[in-house]
Amino acid sequence: MSRKKLSEQEWQTLVKLAERLEISLPALLGRPVRFSEMELAGHRLGRAVAQLTTGRLAGERAEQSPPREPCPTCGKACEVEHQQRDLITVDGSVELSEPVAHCSACRRDFFPSACGNGARSAAK
Q1: Which of 40, 61, 75, 77 has a CA between 20 and 30 Å from the CA of residue 15?
Q2: Domain coordinates in residue numbering, the chain
C-alpha cells in the first residue's frame, strides 16, 4: 500500500469521526505522549472503521436478498427472514443481519447467503 497524504479537510473529517467513536486525537496532540500511544489511537480508529465498514457492507448485501428462496432439499419456496448475530472478525465484533429461511416441509433451516444459492444448511 502506498503512503497517501491527507488534506487538512480530510484530516479534520478523520478527527471528527474519531471523536464520534470516542477516540480523542486532539488530546494526544495537546500533551506529551509516547509514540506508542499515538500508534494505539491510530489502530483503534482503523479497527473501528473496519468494523463499521464490514457491518455496513454485509447489511446492505443482506437487504438485497430475495423475500423467498427455494429449499435446497425439496425446492419449496420458503420465506427469508433476517436474524441479527455477532461475528468476530480480525478487527473485532461485527453485528450481522443474516438471511435465514425455514422449510416446514423438510423441517430444516438454511442460510441462503452461505453459498450464494442456498446450497448450505445449518441445523437449529
Answers
A1: 61
A2: 8-60, 65-122
Maximal C-alpha separation, the chain: 67
CA distances from 36 to 33, 41, 61, 64 (A): 8, 9, 37, 42
Which position has the grid cell 467513536? 21
Environment class of 103 (CB within 10 Å of its CB; exposed 0-12, middle 13-18, buried 19+): buried
User: What does the pLDDT read at residue 1?
Assistant: 59
Residue-wise over 77-102: b if at least 16 C-beta within 10 A, else e?
ebebeeeeeeeeeebeebebbbbbbe
Work out the average pLDDT over 4-13. 94
pLDDT tens profile 55-98: 999 888 888 889 999 999 999 999 999 999 999 999 999 998 88
Provide the edge-to-edge strand list for the sheet that holds 121-122: 68-70, 77-89, 92-103, 108-110, 121-122
In whole angstroms, give the CA distance from residue 114 to residue 105.
21
Please classify residue 106 by burial: count the beta carbons closer than 10 Å to its beta carbon, then call 0-12 exposed, 13-18 middle and 19+ buried: middle
